[in-house]
Amino acid sequence: MPTRLIRDGLIESDTFDELGLEWEPYYMRLLLIVDDYGRYDATLRALTARMFPLKREIATEQVEAFLKHAEAIGLVRLYEHEGKHYLQIENFRQRIRGRSKWPAPPGVVDGEAQDDDGTAPPQAANRPQNADEEPPRAAPCPPTAGNCPQPAAQDVGEGEAGAGINPTPKKARGGNRAHAAPDLQTIVTGHHREFALSIQRCRPEWGGEITHREWPLVAMSWNVEAGNISPETFDIIRAYLDAEPPNANRYDYPDDRELFIRRFSTVRQKAEHWARRTKWHQRHLAGARKEKEQARNRRLQEEAEALSPEERLRLVNELRELNGKPPLTPEEEAAFRQQ
Fold it and tell me: What's the confidence (pLDDT) of residue 254?
């Protein structure tokens, strides 16, 4: 497998940060399997097996959710060619060693070979220009490039120079970058609100309102996991979190609500695996049956206490008759009335 050049500016990129902790390992694994053009077969089953050859618990739905999220923020391009699905990592710019095994995206023509650092050969860069020709613009430095020229400090945020993923201008003062707040009215539905309420009940300390930052994560998790949520899913998750062992991994047993929402798919799968391993369903059904039987006995006892002694005595004799037993003797009736 060819060597991949990954710059440390990647970890300071806003777009890579937007990918989220849950999907970053997926992106790094994808970098290792694509060809020199950043392309690969996007058939979910084959892609999942190639990205996670030793982790059978990773489902194709998780890889599909990663690809959709990565495409939405501009890290990956998904396309079709002759009815088949392919992907290409945007701005991959690695050294080209031959033709791509996979077809190019629509409108893309494979160009000349590049150097190790992802730049064009000197003869292409130093080509003479016509007088009326616009000077070539420098291409944005890709996330995996080796040595890229640094943009001017006033044009990009600190730590973003050469990161290669859509640099975001900083404010004139202060270190926070400006992000447009999402319109919650367009992304939050009734299903999302019910989903959020169920999340709030998972841990007692999560009862507070869902924050503006968390709502987009709630909507994304619901859109990905809606088909996997059953009426008892959150019962299993609550039992799984309650059974958290000492020194547990916080990514498997999140104590932070935002982290829980980001990793909902993984936590749900681990909770369902825990339920199968510990036979939670059998214990849960047995407990439900016992509780139902206790409620029935309490109801019968309350109804019996509401009857007069003579009515209770009549019911006892009827039950004995139904079971083939003789009625109570006068001595037994007298003792029954005294109870």
Answer: 92
